[in-house]
Amino acid sequence: MIMRRRIRKYREALTGYLFALPAILGFLVLTLYPMLASLKYSFQKIDAMGTKKFIGFDNYRYILFDKSSEFIKSLQVTLFYTIINVILVVLYCLIIALLLNRNFRGRNLLRAIYYLPCVIPMLSTTILWKLMMQNQAQGGLINQLLLYMNKTPKEWLTDKYLIFVVLFAMSIWTCGGTIVVFLATLQDVPRELLEAARVDGANAWYQFKEITYQTIKPVLYFQGIMCMVTSIQIFTQSVALSANGAPDRMTYFINVMIYQHSFKDVGLRGLASAEAWAVFLVTLILTFIVFRMSGMFRKEEIKKSRRGRHEANN
Amino acid sequence: MKKVLAIVMILTMLVSLTGCGKDKSVETNSNSKNTESGKKTVELNFLYWADGVQKTLVENACKEYEKQTGVHIKAEALPADETFDSYIQTRMASNNLPDVSYMGEGDMMKYNEMGILADIDDLLSSGKIPKKLDAVTIKSPEGKTLGVGLSNQLVLLYYNKDMFDAAGIEYPPTKVEDAWTWDQFVEVAKKLTVDVNGKNATEDGFAPDKIQTYGIGFNCLCAFHQFWAMNANGGGVVSPDGKNFLWDTNESIEGLQNMVDLVYKYHVASPSLYTFNSAIGSVDATIGSGGYAMYTNGSWDLANLSAIDGVNVGVGVLPKMKNAVTMNCGAPMAIYNTSKHLKEAKDFYAYMVDPAKNLDLLKTGAWLPNEAGYYTDQALIDSWTTNLPKDAKETIISYSTTDGAIAQWPAYFVPAYNKMNTEYTKFIDKALSGEMSVKEAFDLCMPTIKTLFESGTVE
Fold first, then answer.
1. What Rg, from alpha-carbon coordinates, does chain B have?
2. CA pair distance B256, B317, nearest whole angstrom
3. Which of A174, A243, B86, B346 is placed for a possible disulfide with B277 were both Cys, Cβ 3.0 to 4.6 Å?
């Protein structure tokens, strides 16, 4: 009897593993192996013919200390973009979601309108914005409008600071997905609490801070981390705009650089692997910091209710 | 039920695993193939990039060749972007190179250094391939002929005839020897640059920050689009024999500074950067839309002229500084010496680089002939120029028949070009954006670039 049950248990486990096998194999072959291989490559010099030579930490030394290495600058512009972008996107999405969560006519239409741009592929979005932001002589809409209002047109695409305005604008324009997630989370905010607070005379800000924010905090931080990761990986926009980080390498983001070294330049594949690992470590540390900064995956009210129970026990 | 499921799962796994293995049947590259009669025919693998018209032309040419010779051509068309070279590298890594392929201008030296390109000198010296233009013939530093460009793309000056008429200015010349001097050119550009109040750049009260129409636009200022200015000023990147480094000379610096001055000193041009992707668009989007009076771009833009409505576009030679020159590009074709049928590959090569195979592309101006005879022999000239505007035809022929009027893009003959260019890319936008002078930007990067040049190798 026990024997049989054990066999059945094994069988069940086996079936389970078999079901999971494709995913496990996929992870091993397509994720873990390439990662470990790239770790190995990062200590090698790989020439155009594919011959590999072990060179110790030379690649890492190059990216950190060599003066013709662009790693530091690339990391700087990437982090600059990331930090501002995360703050902008999360704040913007939160505000829009809060507004769209109110009751008014045409709410569903507006929700659809805010969501729509995010189904457009980033490449198309970039081309669209490029057409809008180019100079007035080429027919750039924004600049023509500025000229029409007798204002000075701006070189959005060739100025090394204004290019970020374009990047942020595109990022905000396409963040409909995050708005939807926030909207869904806002449905979880307990209405009776809000009502009770209102009855007690709490103002809108206090209601948001003490009730809404506490409920959506985990999702807020999770979206923040996701946004951080995708921002660090920014690639399409830069490549579609200039491919070489123009103007003046200000859009030479880390992934653009790794791609360039790995697939366009000759003999830098080992270096590209080292750069990828360096970025991996940086992302890891950043994520860790964000995790630690906030005990954010716990809902505040749970803590409270626990404390409540504790008190009750006393 | 569970059993069945498990079996299905295992089967699925097995099938997907075999998918990862190498499929032997695909490996037909440069192998002999059995025909129905059991006789062996030669099969050549030919890799090219193309879309639209070009693809049809190549396919037809291959079919025609099969009919004529019985050699089977396995032609593979790829998109015309940077994935092409990655694909060649993948094929090389799996020891499965094609016999003949197109190749990016900047990649010839790389593959030559790896020693996998065949010398085609015998094809040219035996006359199997008639004399090609020097500017499209690619020679290795050791003197091997590695290939010829399929087209002879030149940088040309396009202009809006209506704007010239309205301003009462004579059209740009179409003969190399008549090219405008730089001062003449700047003066014309000033007169054609108009601000929002209708004042041009020579008038008092001109508002340089509110320009409606620019006198001149550069499609972009990447690579040969700006190198022509250095050559025009008596400098260049590397001397034509590949021996002397000219990039850091005063002539080169001054040549490029002249171009940058058009943007920030004279305010007659819109800013341009060192990237092909941020190009300001085709002749249609620039001159056709009325935003630019003059515009420089490659001759491939001639194919777009017919699409322009309501604006008369003219074509002329670029202005000169010290020399009247243009610069060319045009992707070459290469033969791999790993081919098992080198002789047949060479015959096919000679057949494919014949301009007659691309006549439809030549007639639109999308490509220009790579063969010297097509610019001198009247019957051959007529075969491709009948549909081109008269001024375009004169300009092209003038450049192609004047000695030294086409400077060869250094990507063709300088092994270290790519890494020199990579280093250049890191700094040059500082000058092109007006942040510092060309001299200052060059001081930052030229010492390194010079050592890269002196290394004499691709890697």
1. 25
2. 18
3. A243
Q: Which long-range contacts (CB under 8 A, 24 or more apart) does B243-248 make?
A: B245/B450, B245/B453, B245/B454, B247/B420, B247/B442, B247/B446, B247/B449, B247/B450, B247/B453, B248/B442, B248/B446, B248/B449, B248/B450
What sections of B299-385 are H helices per DSSP?
342-352, 359-364, 373-376, 378-385
For residues A48 and B459, is the Cβ–Cβ distance under 8 A? yes
CATH number at residue A174: 1.10.3720.10
Write the single-letter amino acid at B36: E
Whether residue A201 is contained in a domain is answered as: yes
B216 at interface of A, judged by CB pairs closer than 8 A: no
ipTM: 0.82
| Contact call for A242 and B278, based on CB within 8 A | yes
Does residue A241 sit at the B interface (CB-CB below 8 Å)?
yes
What's the pLDDT tens digit per position in B25-81? Answer: 333 444 444 444 445 789 999 999 987 778 888 999 999 999 999 999 999 999 877
* Chain B residues in contact with A24 (beta carbon < 8 A): none
Check B13 against A21: CB less than 8 A apart: yes
Taking contacts as CB-CB distances below 8 angstroms, the residues of chain A near B216 are none
Three-state secondary structure string covering B76-127? EEECCCCHHHHHHHHHHHCCCCCCEEECCHHHHHHHHHCCCECCCHHHHHCC
The answer to whether A243 faces chain B, any CB pair under 8 Å, is yes
The reported pLDDT for the residue numbered B31 is: 46
Residue to substitute from B89, B95, B116, B278, interface A, most A β-carbons within 10 A: B278
Query: Could you tell me the domains of chain B?
Result: 41-151+330-388 (3.40.190.10), 153-328+416-455 (3.40.190.10)
Determine contact: B419 vs chain A, CB below 8 A. yes
The number of C-beta contacts closer than 8 angstroms across A and B is 123
A271 contacts A59 by C-beta, under 8 angstroms: yes
Q: Would the CB atoms of B419 and A264 count as touching at under 8 Å?
A: no
pTM of the predicted structure, to 2 decimals: 0.86
The answer to whether residue A13 is domain-embedded is: no
Identify which of B12, B292, B433 has the shortest CB distance to residue A137: B292
A64 part of a folded domain = no
Range of A93's domain? 69-313
Number of helices (H), then strands (E), belonging to chain B: the values are: 17, 15
State the nearest Cα–Cα gap between B12 and chain A, in angstroms: 9
Contact of B166 with chain A, judged by CB distance below 8 Å, is answered with: no
The pLDDT assigned to A1 comes to: 63
Q: Are A137 and B213 a contacting pair at CB < 8 A?
A: yes
Kindly state whether residue A179 falls inside one of the protein's structural domains: yes
The total number of structural domains that make up chain A? 1
Query: Judged by CB atoms within 8 Å, which residues 16-35 of B form the interface with A?
Result: 16
Nearest to B432 by CA among A138, B424, B182, B191: B424
